[in-house]
Amino acid sequence: xxxxxxxxxxxxxxxxxxxxxxxxxxxxxxxxxxxxxxxxxxxxxxxxxxxxxxxxxxxxxxxxxxxxxxxxxxxxxxxxxxxxxxxxxxxxxxxxxxxxxxxxxxxxxxxxxxxxxxxxxxxxxxxxxxxxxxxxxxxxxxxxxxxxxxxxxxxxxxxxxxxxxxxxxxxxxxxxxxxxxxxxxxxxxxxxxxxxxxxxxxxxxxxxxxxxxxxxxxxxxxxxxxxxxxxxxxxxxxxxxxxxxxxxxxxxxxxxxxxxxxxxxxxxxxxxxxxxxxxxxxxxxxxxxxxxxxxxxxxxxxxxxxxxxxxxxxxxx
Length: 317
Hints:
By secondary structure, this protein is an alpha/beta fold.
């Protein structure tokens, strides 16, 4: 198949940054410079221009999707004779380690929460659904932390099912990036939000299809919209190394940190260690589990080496 045929059957519409920015139309800017700085991760990049040109058009698009989905929910419930109940709109945010998923998720939460009439927007990361380190150690999975098999998938699916069913006060486990483990007996409670953002590296995973045709639920079954944050592998590796060096100078100095042993490393030693971890764990996860899910996203934000989104791909309806 030639390049023209590939383009003809591309399921996505591709927008250059300048083209996408025009789709903001009259969507108002509701965040100031200080708020944007607070939403940015320490090793990420986000400024007023990025919000204006990338995230405000996305916010406008999401408002259209949320309104349309709500109308569909109401119409179907009337058709089925089901008592009205609140059904949250769920957005998945996926992508590699170090690509900036957390920043994107927080920006979307802040923007969406300021729509009129101020919807309730919650954010949950799938880190809380990782198996505890003791379990991963016992199962020989510590080197595969973040891979699909390292998550308590039944618990995550039960959580999303309860949210979509409109149940009250649904709990999700909490994760500490300092101790690199689940926090025992601590949870975050999600109580019937209008919109829920679910962020994680493998949220678009499908799993193996059954031969007998039985229903096998996956996390993305519960999504109404999904965003994949993309960047080339060498760029991701460089960002991971930069983040590792930044954490070596900050969080790793805390004696409670799981990575405290790396705090005394020189720049050269820390860089070599970060690259080894990247290649052993994160690159394998990216190639085998994360990148293959990219074509399942509703929208793909492709970043350049400076962390700025260069192109936007929107799946055709």
